[in-house]
Amino acid sequence: MAFLRWVLLFLILALVASLLGFHGMASGLSEIAKALLFIFVILLVISLFFGGRSTS
Question: Where do transmembrane segments lie in this chain (predicted)?
Answer without folding.
Answer: 7-26, 32-51
